[in-house]
Amino acid sequence: MFRTKASIPFFFTSLLLTASAMAGPSVFPTGTTRHDPARAYGSFVLFTGGDNVARLIDLHGNTVRQWRDAAAFSTFVDPALVGGQRGHVFVTLAQADGTGTELVPGRVGTRVSRTIGELDWHGKVVWQFGEKAPGGLARQHHDWGRLPNGNTIVLANLTHAAPGFKQPQVLDDVFYEVNPAGEIVWRWVASEHLEEFGFTPEQLKLVRQSHDADYLHVNNLKVLGPNRWYKAGDQRFHPDNLIFDSRNANFIAIVERKTGKVVWTLGPNYPAIPKGPSARKVPRPVDQITGQHDAHLIPEGLPGAGNLLVFDNQGEAGYPPVELQTTGGSRVLEIDPIKKEIVWQYTGEDSGGPSWSFRSTHISAARRLPNGNTFIDEGQSGRLFQVTPNGDIVWEYVNAHPRVGKDPVNGKQTVNHQLYRAQPVPYDWAPAGTPHDDQAVIAAGK
Questions:
Q1: Which stretch of DSSP H or E encloses residue 10?
Q2: Which residues pair with 76 in a beta bridge?
Q3: What's the N-to-C CA distance of the chain in angstroms?
Q4: What is the number of other CB atoms lying within 10 angstroms of the CB of residue 335?
Q5: What number of CA atoms fall less than 13 Å from residue 98's CA on the CB side?
Q6: Which of 133, 151, 341, 396 could form a disulfide bond with 283, CB atoms 3.0-4.6 angstroms apart?
Q7: Closest CA to 143 of 206, 221, 34
Q8: Are 289 and 297 in contact (CB under 8 A)?
Q9: Cβ contacts of 226 within 8 Å, gap of 6 or more
Q10: Confidence of residue 69 (pLDDT cuts 50, 70, 90)
Q11: CB-side exposure of 54: number of CA atoms within 13 Å?
C-alpha cells in the first residue's frame, strides 16, 4: 500500500466523490503517491486547496500548518525579506463584489480581492493593503512579492477606458509598489506600453479590437533579483527590474523599474515547434510558447541561475490564436535569456509517457531546486511533482483538498482538484523544530 496514514481519509473521500462526479478517471489516489528521499529535494510545500485553506505540507503529505480563508492562492515569504522572521505568508484577507469584472465574457465569478495581507505563523495580520487602494479595493490577482526595500509589489486589475480599444472599458493589468503603511508609491499600467511588447501593426489592431476586456491576462510578476547578466554589464537585467508574462498574448517582458520602459521581450512571435525528436533536442532557439505561466529568472545559488524558467502550458492564446500541437502536452522550459535558446526542457516523454501525459492548458508553475531537480505544479489536475534533470519523477503529490460544488445545470456534485500555484518552501523558512516526515513512498506496481 502506498498511502500514508495521514492522508488515507482524503484518499477514500476522493474515491467516493470522484466516482460519482467526474468525467475523467473515476478513481485515482490523492496525497503523496511517490517519494524517493535519496533523490528528491527535501522541503515543505505550500498551496491553497479548493476549500480556500492554505496548507504547508511535508513531502509525505502531512499538513504541518494551515491558514484559513486564503482565497485562491498563497505565497510563503523569504525570511530574509522580513527581518529573519520565519513562517510568514501572503493571503487574501477579504473579498468583495468586483466592479467591472462582468466585462470579461465567460467569467463566472465576479469576486475580487478587497484586502490582501501578510500573516505570521500564528495567523496574526502583520501587513495589509486594500483600504488605500483605488476605490478601497486591492483587486490583486495572480501574484505579489516582498521587495528588498520592505515594500511589496502587487499585480492588480484596473478597469478603465483605454484609448484606441473597441471595448469601452478594459480589464487592465497594473503593478503597484506598496509601502508598509499600505500606500501606493509607484504604479505601472500595461495599456500605456502596448507598442513596446513586440506586436506587429496587424497584431496591435487585433489586440485593440479584442472582444475580451481581459486582453493581456498577465499572470505573474517577479522582481529579477541579483543575476549574472547584470553583473556582466547588461543593464536590462538590473536586479530591481520586473519580469512578467501575458497569458493571452504569448509574451514575456522585463520592465525597467526606473523608467517604466519595456527593455526585453520574448515573443509574442515564435517559430513553430519542430516535429519529432527535433522538438526535444537542446539547445535550440525558443519555439512556440503559448498560454504560459510563472516566468522568472532562476535565483542565484541554484543550478541554472540567471536562466529563465517558465511553464509553457500550450493552451489556446495569441493574436491571432496560434496553431497548437495536435496531441501535444505542456512543457517546462529553461531558457538562456541572452541567446534566447532553450537549454533544458521537460515534457511527458522525459518521464517515459506520451507528450499528452503531462498537460495543463491553464494555471501551473515550475521552480528550480538546490539539488538540480525541478518542482512542477501541473495545476489543471492538481498534481505536484519533482523531476530530476533527466526527467525521473522522484516525488509526486495529488491535491487531497479539492473544491466540491454542484453543477448549476444538472445539480450533480462536482469535484475540482486543480491548484493554481504551489511553492516549495525550504525547511529553514518555517520556525525551528517544525516537524516533517521524510519516509519513502513507493508507487503502486513499482
A1: helix 8-21
A2: 89
A3: 11
A4: 26
A5: 25
A6: 341
A7: 221
A8: no
A9: 239, 300
A10: confident
A11: 28
d(CA 28, CA 5): 17
Does residue 299 sit in helix, strand or coil? coil
The amino acid occupying position 247 is R
Please name the residue that has the C-alpha cell 511553492: 423
Alpha-carbon distance 14 to 19, whole Å? 8
Specify the DSSP element, H or E, that contains 242.
Answer: strand 242-246
**How many other C-beta atoms can be found within 10 angstroms of the C-beta atom of residue 402?**
25
Question: Using one digit for the tens of pLDDT, what is the confidence trace for 276-290?
Answer: 899 999 999 999 999
Lowest-pLDDT range of 55-69, 88-102, 124-138, 302-316: 88-102
User: Which of 373, 438, 378, 425 has the alpha carbon at shortest distance from 32?
Assistant: 438
Residues 307, 137: Cα–Cα separation, whole Å: 35
Burial of 263 (0-12, 13-18, 19+ CB in 10 A): middle
Compute the distance between CA of residue 399 and CA of residue 381 in angstroms, rounded to an integer.
Answer: 8
Find out whether 375 and 366 touch, Cβ atoms under 8 Å.
yes
Provide the whole-model pTM.
0.93
Contact 124, 100 (CB under 8 A): no
CA distances from 254 to 44, 46, 176, 243, 258 (A): 30, 27, 15, 4, 12
CA 103 from chain centre, in angstroms, equals 24
| Three-state helix/strand/coil letters over 40-97 | CCCCEEEEECCCCCEEEECCCCCEEEEECCCCCCCEECCHHHCCCCCCCEEEEEEEEE
Task: Tell me the residue length of the chain.
Answer: 446
DSSP class of residue 167? S
Domain boundaries, the chain: 217-363
**Cβ-based burial of 172 (10 A; exposed 0-12, middle 13-18, buried ≥19):** buried
Coil, strand or helix: which one is 271? coil
Task: Give the helix/strand (H/E) hosting 159.
Answer: strand 152-160
Kindly give the residue spans of alpha helices, DSSP state H, lying in 254-310.
none
Q: What is the C-alpha separation between 415 and 401, in angstroms, rounded? A: 10
Kindly report, residue by residue over 379-432, the tens digit of the pLDDT.
999 999 999 999 999 999 999 999 999 988 999 999 999 999 999 999 999 999
pLDDT at 15 over 80: no
Cell for 142? 495572480
What is the side-by-side order of every strand in the sheet holding 125-129? 75-76, 89-97, 111-119, 125-129
Adjacent-strand bridge partners of 366: 376
Residue 48 and residue 422: Cα distance in Å, rounded?
8
